[in-house]
Amino acid sequence: MSALPLGFLPVLVRREHASLAIKLLAPPVALGLATLLNLGLYLLMGRDPVAVFHAMLLEPFLSWASFSEVLLKMGPLLLIAQGLAIGFRAKVFNIGAEGQFILGAIFASAIPIWLPQATGQWIWPSMLVLGALGGALWASLTAFWRVRLNANEILVSLMLALVAAQVLNYLLLGPWKDPAGFNFPQSVMFQYDAMVPILIPGTRVNVSLLIACALSLAAWLFMQRSFAGYKLQVGGLAPRAAAYAGFNEGRAIWISFLIGGFAAGLAGAAEVAGPLGQLQRSISTGYGYAAIIVAYLGGLHPIGIIFSALLMAALYIGGDNAMVSANLPVAAVRVFQGSLLLAYLVAIAFVRYRLEWRHAAQGSAP
């Protein structure tokens, strides 16, 4: 086996064109790489890697009861990821979707908490609308700071997510606390008309999954068939060209944050009006952060995000299974999610670039 001649260095060179096949291979390669890395980690932890693999990646699809729970988890992940991906393609990074999700849940909960005796089919749609507006309102704070004060949107949106969690704590430990709730930090249970209708009888899957699929179609039409979506994409790919063409950067930031906040708030409203049936502190389960992984794993494309949301939802359910059957700590499940994003970023780097060996005298590639 011949050694590499001295004086040669590896250089990443941008591909002129990446084939569709290579792009489609990136997510499964990332999943395989992340799985191998984590199975090695589980072996070092003294866990049976085969049992963990079976519980985490196979069990969610082996029974209808488990798969229905996957579909239930898929709804909020799909909603949030579709909203975030629009901004990410415009290079507007909304990292605070978790806070917008919480505010959506809070705004939606105001109706059944303030009107506990109200009845009628108008309640749950009104909750969804109010929740979406609440998420958009919270996101608009970051947009304002970014456009008017040139603040970093990553830091501002992330800090506002922490503020949103404290607002939730205040409400559930104060004015919205259920007086008959045995001192638990939760609101009263919502009335029947405040619950989103069940989509599949015999399961907890509700109409919010259909709403998420409809939003996915709307996201595809917006990004692929509208001039506003085209301007956002140009602004992300070529900011100077967009500025020369007269595209308004501030408007792109506002649109990105309002759409992302609207989708996250809608997901939060659907969560309290769906599987939870009340406002709880456990509403903050990390959906807003996991949706970032979903968006990128789906290639920031509405169709790809549907499949990545299904995968991430399966990891949520499979992680719960592995914690019970394989005695896996919850931190290990989160490590798997994070390593999946890391593996995808490595895979996508080799989609956009190829590795060449060059003589040191040639220098690095432009």
TrEMBL record:
Domain of life where this protein originates: Bacteria
Main location: membrane
InterPro entries with a match to the protein in the record: ABC_transp_permease (IPR001851)
Pfam families registered for this protein in UniProt: BPD_transp_2
GO molecular-function term, one example from the UniProt record: transmembrane transporter activity
KW Transmembrane helix (keyword) present: yes
CDD domains noted in UniProt: TM_PBP1_transp_TpRbsC_like
TM helices/strands, residue ranges: 24-45, 92-115, 127-147, 154-173, 205-223, 253-274, 286-319, 331-351
Membrane topology category: Multi-pass membrane protein
Localization per Swiss-Prot or TrEMBL: Cell membrane
GO cellular component: a single term: plasma membrane
Sorted UniProt keywords: Cell membrane, Membrane, Transmembrane, Transmembrane helix
Cross-referenced PANTHER family: ABC TRANSPORTER, PERMEASE PROTEIN (PTHR47089), GUANOSINE ABC TRANSPORTER PERMEASE PROTEIN NUPP (PTHR47089:SF1)
Name of the protein in question: ABC transporter permease
Organism: Mesorhizobium atlanticum
Upper lineage: Bacteria, Pseudomonadati, Pseudomonadota, Alphaproteobacteria, Hyphomicrobiales
